[in-house]
Write a structure and sequence with these properties.
The chain is of the alpha+beta class. It contains five helices and nine strands; from the N terminus they run αβββαβαβαββββα. It is globular. Bound molecules: nickel (II) ion. Nickel (II) ion (NI) binds next to α2. The site of nickel (II) ion (NI) has 5 residues, from α2.
């Protein structure tokens, strides 16, 4: 081996390692947009249910579930959605008894477990209210790539702007797609029951 070749070996190995590192980095970066379409929406959370129990995403495995964000002081969007979801769950009937709909508050300061419990008493009992401390709620909002922002009102009060998307999750807790409520409840219920 000539001196020249030996001098070249070290830089070549360094270059090779560098390229390998780049290739690995590219694979890691590209993985979330892999063609499976299984974008990482959802994820681990630890919150408190309207019954005062600590729950995680694992508690909802085994049956399809809907997830949506809102707050009990919401003037119209949230109550309408809760009503529509109740209708869908009613249409799902006995076959959909294990289905759950997770109403995750974006206003945990006002939405205590007790406040959620009394609010949800007007809706289907398969709807589970979830709250928690602010960091836990914010982390959940981020995990679902949702959006929530406090907006002050003139009288010193505030409202919450938030994502109105309803997420359909399968029995393994994987995101299936956004769930359309703008159709007859029986038709929406069929989509839920296909995941049971
Ligand atoms: Ni709302």
């Amino acid at each position: 081996m000539s001196v020249t070749v030996r001098r070249l070996i070290v830089p070549l190995i360094a270059l090779g390692l560098g390229l390998a590192t780049l290739a690995i980095a590219a694979v890691i970066v590209l993985r979330p947009s892999a063609p499976t379409g299984a974008a990482a929406i959802g994820g681990p959370f630890t919150l408190v249910s309207h019954e005062g129990k600590i729950v995680t995403e694992r508690d909802f495995r085994g049956a399809p579930h809907l997830v949506f964000f809102g707050f009990t002081h919401c003037p119209d969007v949230c109550p309408t959605k809760l009503f529509e979801i109740s209708e869908v769950l009613r249409a799902a009937g006995e076959r959909g008894r294990a289905v759950r709909a997770l109403f995750i508050t974006v206003d945990p300061e006002r939405d205590t477990p007790e406040a959620l419990k009394s609010y949800l008493a007007s809706f289907d009992e398969r709807i589970v209210g979830l709250t928690g401390d602010r960091p836990a709620v914010d982390a959940t909002v981020r995990a679902f790539r949702a959006y929530a922002r406090k907006a002050p009102l003139k009288d010193g009060d505030y409202t919450m702007e938030h994502t109105s998307l309803v997420y359909l999750m399968d029995r393994d807790g994987r995101f299936v797609g956004s769930f359309n409520l703008a159709r007859p409840p029986a038709e929406a219920a069929q989509e839920l029951l296909r995941q049971v």
